[in-house]
C-alpha cells in the first residue's frame, strides 16, 4: 500500500486556524501509524505545500516547518519519500492536464496523477475532489 499526500493536507495540518486542521491531524496520525502505507510527496507538492502555508498563514516559521516535516529534517521522522518530477512524468502530466480539462485539475494535480501511475502509488490523500474519477482518493475527513 502507498499514498501520495497532497499539499492541502500539509497546509491544514500546519495551520491551527484552518477549517480542516483537525481532519488533517487525524490523517497524519493515520499516515504516521502506517495505516495508508508508504507516504510519497513530489517536489511539485513540496513547493505547493510550503508556498500555500506561507501565503495563507503569513508565517515563514510555519512554512519552513512544513518543508522540514516533508524532508524528515531534524525533529521530524523521515517518513515521506520525496520524488522528483522527471521528464517522462512531466510529459505524462501535460497529457493528463489536457485530457482532463473538464476536471478542474491544477497542473500540480496532473503531476500527482502522472507520478502515481509511474510509481504505482495506490491513492492520494487529499481534500481535493478533482481527483475523483481519475485516481483513488482518500478524503482526510473520512479517517479517524
Automatic annotation (TrEMBL):
Q: Which residues form the signal peptide?
A: none
PIN domain residues: 3-132
Listed under GO biological process in this entry are: rRNA catabolic process
Source organism, top-level taxon:
Archaea
GO molecular function terms attached to this record: hydrolase activity; RNA endonuclease activity
Does the record bear Nucleotide-binding in its keywords? no
Q: Which UniProt keywords apply?
A: Hydrolase
Q: Which Pfam families match?
A: PIN
User: What protein am I looking at?
Assistant: PIN domain-containing protein
Say which species the protein is native to. Halosimplex carlsbadense 2-9-1
Amino acid at each position: 500500500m502507498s499514498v501520495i499526500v497532497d499539499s492541502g493536507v500539509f497546509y491544514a495540518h500546519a495551520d491551527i486556524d484552518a477549517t480542516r486542521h483537525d481532519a488533517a491531524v487525524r490523517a497524519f496520525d493515520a499516515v504516521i501509524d502506517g495505516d495508508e502505507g508508504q507516504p510519497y510527496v513530489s517536489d511539485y507538492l513540496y513547493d505547493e505545500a510550503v508556498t500555500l502555508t506561507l501565503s495563507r498563514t503569513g508565517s515563514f516559521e510555519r512554512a519552513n516547518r512544513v518543508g522540514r516535516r516533508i524532508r524528515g529534517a531534524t525533529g521530524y521522522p523521515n517518513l515521506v519519500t520525496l520524488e522528483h518530477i522527471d521528464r517522462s512524468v512531466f510529459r505524462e502530466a501535460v497529457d493528463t492536464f489536457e485530457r482532463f480539462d473538464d476536471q478542474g485539475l491544477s497542473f500540480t494535480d496532473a503531476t500527482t496523477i502522472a507520478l502515481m501511475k509511474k510509481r504505482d502509488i495506490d491513492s492520494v490523500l487529499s481534500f481535493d475532489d478533482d481527483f475523483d474519477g481519475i485516481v483513488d482518493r482518500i478524503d482526510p475527513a473520512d479517517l479517524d
